[in-house]
Specification:
It is built from four helices and four strands. The chain is α+β, with helices and mostly antiparallel strands.
Length: 106
């Protein structure tokens, strides 16, 4: 599966977070943002898998983002496992921005 499509699916199809967390307290569902960067960490553990992504800004500086995704169980149903993403992979993802930009979570 194309890594761009997979990254989009991972972040966009995490609707279960909407159901059992105060999603709109933390994230803005009316906006999306796109990030392209290099994975520096991928954690495949419950309750949510996560990854760290280094993104190069227009000025050349690197900004690190923490990305919370869906559960490993949901990932497995989508055909994703702990070997799908590796440190050093370049991905593009689309996700909802955090309401607190200082936290850099999406």
């Amino acid at each position: 599966m194309n890594r761009l499509l997979l990254a989009c699916l991972v972040c966009v199809l995490t609707g279960s977070a909407y159901a059992h967390h105060a999603f709109t307290t933390h994230y803005n569902p009316r906006e999306t943002m796109q990030l392209q960067g290099v994975i520096t960490e991928f954690t495949f553990v419950s309750p949510h898998a996560s990854l760290a992504l280094d993104v190069e800004s227009e000025d050349g500086s690197i900004k690190s983002w923490e990305v919370e995704t869906t559960s490993p169980a949901h990932f497995r149903r989508m055909g994703v496992d702990q070997n799908t993403f590796s440190v050093g992979d370049e991905i593009t993802l689309i996700a909802w921005p955090n309401r607190n930009p200082a936290q850099q979570l999406i």
